[in-house]
Amino acid sequence: MDSIVQNLTIDIHWIHDKITFPQWKDVRQNINVHSFYWIQEGRGIFRTDEDHPVSPGMMFYLRPGLSMEMHCGSEEPLRIKMILLSLYTLSPSAVNQGTVKPLEALPLQFILKPEGEAGKRLGYLFQSIVADWVPGSTGSQLMTQSLIYELIYELLQAQVSIHPEGRQGYTLFLQIKDDLERRYSKPLLISELAVRYGISSSYLRSIFQQYLHKSPKGYLSEIRYEHAKKLLLYTQLNLKEIATVCGYSDEFHFSKSFKKHCGQPPSVLRVRDNPAKTDPD
Questions:
Q1: pLDDT for 129-161, tens place per residue?
Q2: Range 2-162: architecture per CATH
Q3: Domain coordinates in residue numbering, the chain
Q4: Which of 1, 100, 228, 235 has the CA that lies 20 to 30 A from 52?
Q5: In angstroms, rounded to a whole number, what is the distance separating the alpha carbons of residues 197 and 216?
Q6: Which parts of the sequence belong to the HTH araC/xylS-type domain (predicted)?
Q7: Domain 164-281 of CATH type 1.10.10.60
Q8: 3-state DSSP call for residue 61?
């Protein structure tokens, strides 16, 4: 999930405040894009392979290719904030030879109805995006894209934390995840991290497996690897200096860990992607 969001490229097609009328009916016209529908007002039915009752505060994510019929009754016409996008994943390169591929689908549920502050936050973001978008305006395009990135991030977070029984564990997970991301350059033992947060090491591992599908040690290793990779590509620091900056105990452990992630030693990556650069060692 993180890699998708980090390397996501957005192309805005249309943003619209759809105000319907009593007994309104329609079908999804643009099925080749990613669509977000935020229900601001009214009630109705969205029909895919089954009927989905629609009410205020619901968010529908329609992946490309999904057909849908929509209608409402005579009493409460729908008002829908609509965002239509093409999404791509970018494989970056230090020498600007990255590849761009269309994204088939975001890891989002078809229906999401967050409560409380999360719901208010999403409603505010949809409102801001629709109100501020000006087609053809470069400034508006950039600002709107930044809000859409924020929206996608908030949707992913809301999706994970929506179940009441998971909120306490999810909040703890986010705190520890943030701790790892900020303190990656320092020596860290997972057992010490568990003690700091007053939980057992097994529970710490379980919440990381639940929400990130990897161990806290594995996630920390990925963070260090990503920082090390950027330093290899964009600086002249030698391997020993990079190992120290990224929290590895020494150059040997850095090279071993890097090869485990990348399939090759760090020195090979530096020479391959930056022919003009060689390790000062």
A1: 999 999 999 999 999 999 999 999 899 888 876
A2: Sandwich (2.60)
A3: 2-162, 164-281
A4: 1
A5: 14
A6: 174-272
A7: yes
A8: strand
